[in-house]
Amino acid sequence: MKNRAETQTVNRMNPVKPLIGITLGDAAGIGAEITLKALADARVRDSLEAVLFGDRVVLEQAIQQTGLRGEIVEIDSVENLHPEPGIHYLCDQHQLTAAAEMGRVSAACGAAAFAAIKTAVQWALEKKIDALCTAPINKASLQAAGVPFIDHTEILGHDTGTKSPLTLFVVDQLRIAFLTKHIPLRRVAESLSVPLVVEGLAATDRGLQQLGLSRRRIALAALNPHAGDSGLFGDEEETVLAPAVAAAAARGLEVYGPVPADAVFHDGLEGRYDAILSLYHDQGHIAAKTRDFHRTVSFTLGMPFLRTTPDHGTAFAIAGENRANPLSMIEALLAAARYG
What we know:
Layout: H1 4-7, E1 19-23, H2 31-39, H3 42-47, E2 49-54, H4 56-66, E3 71-74, E4 87-92, H5 107-125, E5 131-134, H6 139-144, H7 152-160, E6 166-171, E7 174-178, H8 188-191, H9 194-210, E8 217-221, H10 236-250, E9 254-259, H11 261-269, E10 275-278, H12 281-292, E11 297-301, E12 307-310, H13 327-339
Parallel strand pairs: 1-2, 1-5, 2-4, 3-4, 5-12, 7-10, 8-9, 8-10
Antiparallel strand pairs: 6-7, 6-11, 11-12
Helix pairs in contact: 2-4, 2-13, 5-7, 9-10
């Protein structure tokens, strides 16, 4: 592959912008809409170049819905990409032949979204793009299509050979990693073990290193009210979480806790910690999204490349109505350009 400086038409007085791959997500959702709106933002245009992965019919439908005009140029190689205003470079997956019915679970849309992700991952592994930003997909559509993975993280982990990719939410000074993700709440306590938590703390430390943090103060969120209150409200803090913190500290990590969950996220916002390891999905999601729903960015770390994504879903309820707020997508693209 040629050097990007040889393949892109750019102002040679300025550094070459990073090239970010963007998957359009579920065709029945808001992915293509927020992508077009984000690419129209001046901060995004000034920070990166983009290549889109999805289906032409999806992009055409979004252009019509939003009124954000642009010429679509299909490419199958980075050597054919010569960025200039008003052009959307698309690696067409040729999965969909007609516009999607917006806001509906669809096996065809699930299969198309899956194909786009796999192609984009291959480009990232081959260093054709500097980072990947993914628009939201729908888990029910993936399952309807027979995809053997429940979400982006599982797909990315499988296709990159990464055993346990780290999900990290970032909003303002608050960084939240997740020990467990899409499992029922009743299974969280029984899934906890000292080795699992130690590895979660270590993975968080590695993820912060990937983002360039020299000091990495990591707090472990508690499971029970008041961190169990010496066993009065549960013993997981004493039997699992505190021993795991001690074991991680013995490995040289700067770790704290378990810290009561009703205080730890505030402490993170205040700058007391560089990241917080949340024990389960909603524990960390509620904190980040309450702080700023539209500006929270989700990172996937620990892979050979960086992936970012908005912190929200496909928003089927408003899909096709040109009402989606692109701010989280804008922030995700800016983060991919900054850290990728």
